[in-house]
């Protein structure tokens, strides 16, 4: 179903005829956004979509407890001379492999005693009486009312749709609509009402001839009266809850507006000024500690980093001088040793080539040692001085250089953060400048908190009334079953009732099986859509939907539950 246009005539705030073109230029971007100032009729347009499609079943924003005729009267433009209005919705729909141009026209006028409503449907330009006559059933095959709210909605309510606490009701309606389980729900309700219908038939047939039937019948009438009272109480609780929800949503919007105005004026900075000043003091202290340590390093060995190549050359020269001194000390002794070795060799009979080799080896050794000893003594460093220089170059300078780099980075980061905090503090407004906005925000916040508490109270009350109604209905069903069992002539009805109970059990099993079969695919589709919209792709790895309660659970890649509060806008 692709909308092409919406035409309104004397509807709500729109006097005369108005047409809204809905055809999009790019079919890959089929979303239509309608924006306007408050009070311009955006909500009325949204209600018009629902009304033209679903008539008295439409879930509009302002019908409340009005009867359908009274609601249609309220929808006619007050300044109109004609006591009537109409809505027309055009859309493209594909059926049996063929695209069809469809127009639905819903017309109504006040006849005085009642409101006459007509629905006409045109397909490819021509009227289709059969489609118009069965429109309520046909529209459910195109856009089921249970999921219409996911395609036609107020943008201000998107946040509510994303609230996991309210997502259960939305998902329940959507999934049951998609799977056609709303029909199962209606069938279950009809089967539940069957015992009461059969007892009414039995009463007319038997005339309550026995005392037992009379007593049971009296008890049934009492319970029926109690069911009506509990139903009224339940309906009142539903209305109170709906009113509380509306009040909460209005209070929430008012608080958001006050909060945005407060933030625009610098309220967040004003509220955070103490924390900013404390952070600034801590950063200043960190920066001072880093600067002091850098000064200490500058007064220690760190400046030698600037002449490290020269110090390395000094160490090499000192080591050569040490070798030269050692060689000079042993050269004289080696001359005497060499003479003794040659004399000994000759004395033991070494002659010829072996003697020449030994003589050559000793001469080469003396030449090498003489070359090593032939170094000019310039530095004349002691062994202790060489050890200190070697330790300085081998570790001290490296450690101090690494520490100085770390301290410099820390100091630069602290100074940068200090500058940013100083800019934020400079933007903090004065107390007088923010006082009025702060007071308005506080009032709106308290009203929102009060409305939230009232809504929670109403929700608990509604749940209690629903539980009471369920309890009384169950008691009534038990009495009605007894009446049927007590009536000897109600064998067929009892069989029918037994079959109805079996069918209800089968419907429950069917509903659970249908949801379990498709819930995994739905969860996967929801996750894919979710990940296409958010930037935090690694935050949520799986979305689980409980097939029994439709509760939504978000999990990360490790299987841990992701709290909703971690999901930012």
What is the approximate shape? Answer: elongated
Distance between the termini: 31 Å
Radius of gyration: 46 Å
Largest sheet: 6 strands, antiparallel
Mean pLDDT comes to: 83
How are the strands of the biggest sheet laid out side by side? 2-1-3-4-5-6
Stretches with pLDDT under 50, minimum 5 residues? none
Query: Element order, helices and strands?
Result: EEHHEEEEHHHHHHHHHHHHHHEE
Q: What's the total helix number?
A: 16
| Number of DSSP E strands | 8
- The percentage of residues in β strands lies in 5-15%
Tell me the helix content.
55-70%
- Helix and strand content put the structural class at alpha+beta
What can you tell me about this protein's structure?
The protein has 569 residues and is an alpha+beta fold. The protein is built from 16 helices and eight strands. The strands form two sheets. A six-stranded antiparallel sheet has the order 2-1-3-4-5-6. Strands 7-8 form a two-stranded antiparallel ribbon. Strand 7 and strand 8 form a beta hairpin. Helix 8 crosses helix 15 and helix 12 packs antiparallel against helix 14. The protein is elongated and about 155 Å long. The two termini are 31 Å apart. The model has no long low-confidence stretch (mean pLDDT 83).
């Amino acid at each position: 179903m692709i909308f092409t246009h919406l035409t309104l005539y004397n509807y709500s705030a729109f006097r005369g005829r108005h047409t809204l073109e809905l055809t999009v230029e790019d079919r890959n971007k089929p979303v239509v956004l309608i924006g306007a100032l408050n009070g311009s009729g955006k909500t009325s347009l949204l209600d018009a979509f629902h009304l033209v499609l679903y008539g008295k079943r439409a879930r509009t924003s302002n019908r409340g407890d009005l009867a359908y005729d009274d609601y249609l009267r309220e929808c006619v433009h007050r300044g109109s001379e004609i006591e009537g209005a109409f809505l027309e919705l055009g859309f493209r729909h594909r059926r049996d492999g063929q695209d069809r141009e469809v127009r639905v026209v819903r017309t109504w006028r006040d006849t005085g005693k009642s409101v006459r409503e007509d629905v006409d449907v045109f397909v490819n330009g021509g009227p289709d009486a059969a489609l118009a006559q069965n429109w309520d059933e046909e529209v459910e095959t195109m856009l089921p009312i249970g999921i219409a709210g996911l395609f036609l909605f107020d943008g201000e309510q998107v946040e509510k749709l994303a609230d996991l606490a309210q997502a259960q009701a939305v998902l329940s309606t959507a999934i049951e609509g998609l799977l056609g389980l709303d029909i199962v729900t209606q069938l279950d309700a009809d089967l539940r009402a069957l015992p009461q219908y059969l007892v009414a038939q039995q009463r007319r047939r038997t005339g309550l001839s026995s005392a037992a039937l009379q007593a049971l019948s009296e008890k049934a009438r009492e319970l029926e009266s109690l069911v009506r009272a509990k139903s009224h109480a339940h309906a009142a609780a539903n209305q109170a809850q709906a009113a509380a929800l509306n009040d909460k949503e209005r209070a929430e919007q008012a608080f958001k507006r006050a909060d945005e105005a407060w933030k625009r004026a610098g309220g967040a900075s004003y509220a955070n000024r103490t924390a900013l000043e404390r952070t600034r003091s801590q950063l200043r202290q960190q920066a001072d500690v880093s600067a002091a340590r850098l000064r200490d390093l500058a007064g220690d060995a760190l400046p030698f980093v600037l002449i490290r190549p020269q110090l390395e050359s000094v160490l090499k020269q000192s080591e050569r001088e040490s070798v030269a001194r050692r060689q000079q000390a042993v050269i004289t002794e080696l001359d005497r040793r060499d003479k003794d070795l040659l004399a000994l060799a000759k004395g033991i009979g070494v002659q010829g080539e072996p003697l020449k080799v030994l003589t050559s080896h000793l001469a080469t050794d003396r030449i090498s040692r003489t070359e090593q000893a032939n170094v000019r003594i310039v530095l004349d460093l002691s062994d202790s001085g060489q050890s200190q220089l070697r330790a300085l170059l081998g570790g001290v300078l490296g450690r101090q250089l690494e520490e100085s780099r770390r301290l410099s980075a820390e100091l630069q980061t602290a100074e940068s953060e200090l500058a940013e905090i100083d800019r934020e503090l400079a933007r903090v407004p004065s107390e007088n400048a923010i006082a009025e906005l702060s007071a308005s925000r506080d009032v709106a916040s308290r009203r929102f908190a009060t409305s939230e508490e009232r809504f929670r109270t109403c929700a608990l009350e509604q749940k209690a009334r629903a539980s009471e109604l369920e309890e009384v209905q169950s008691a009534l069903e038990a009495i009605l079953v007894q009446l049927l069992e007590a009536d000897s002539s109600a064998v067929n009805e009892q069989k029918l009732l037994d079959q109805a109970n079996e069918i209800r059990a089968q419907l429950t099993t069917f509903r659970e099986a249908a949801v379990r079969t498709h819930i995994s695919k739905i969860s996967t589709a929801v996750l894919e859509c979710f990940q296409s919209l958010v930037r935090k792709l690694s935050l949520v790895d799986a979305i689980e939907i409980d097939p029994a309660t439709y509760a939504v659970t978000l999990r990360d890649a490790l299987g841990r539950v992701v709290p909703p509060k971690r999901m930012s806008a």
